[in-house]
Amino acid sequence: MSLIRRFSFVLVLYVAFVFVQSLFFKFTNSPETVYIFGTLNGWAGGLGFPGLFAPSGIFSQYVIGTAELIASLVILASLLPALRWLRPFGALIGLAVISGAILFHLFTPLGVSVLNTDGTYDHGELFGLACGVWVSCALLLLVDRDRLLALLPARKA
Question: What pLDDT does residue 155 have?
Answer without folding.
Answer: 65
